[in-house]
């Protein structure tokens, strides 16, 4: 947070107030998401994981990973505001600017790759669960009977997913 405040002051002195404001907003978002993530991980580690509720533990773990992924965007904005603001102010040359742009691209590429995998996994699980719920009347061997999640491929996906 202190870095963003120092960056804001430097950029304001150089006439790049917009990039300084972007750095301030991005650092606030990064700080807030970091606090949220630390809280969720602490709750997982110290109270919920030992309770035996695997469903809640899994969902909170997914929430923590989603928070890590979503925090990539304000982190990229913080890097971008520093690189673009300092370059536009003439305080850095093109080489550090290029490194800053490459860092922004790497952060965003990592976020979209992980986010895509997480979303596709969640959609696959939801689709499989929806399919299993619509086929409740089929038992083992596809005869009418009680729903057994191990009796069809969709149930296997829900259990394994």
What does this structure look like?
α1 runs antiparallel to α2 and α2 runs antiparallel to α3 (54-70). This protein has helices at 2-13, 17-48, 54-70, 72-88, 94-134, 153-160. It has one domain (2-160). The two termini are 39 Å apart. The chain is an all-alpha fold and 161 residues long. It has 6 helices and no strands. Helices cover 79% and strands 0% of the residues.
Task: Note the main attributes of this structure.
mainly alpha, single chain, disordered C terminus, 161 residues, 6 helices
List the helices and strands and how they pair.
Elements: H1 2-13, H2 17-48, H3 54-70, H4 72-88, H5 94-134, H6 153-160
Helix pairs in contact: 1-2, 1-4, 2-3, 2-4, 3-5, 4-5, 5-6
Describe the structure in brief.
This protein has 161 residues and is an all-alpha fold.
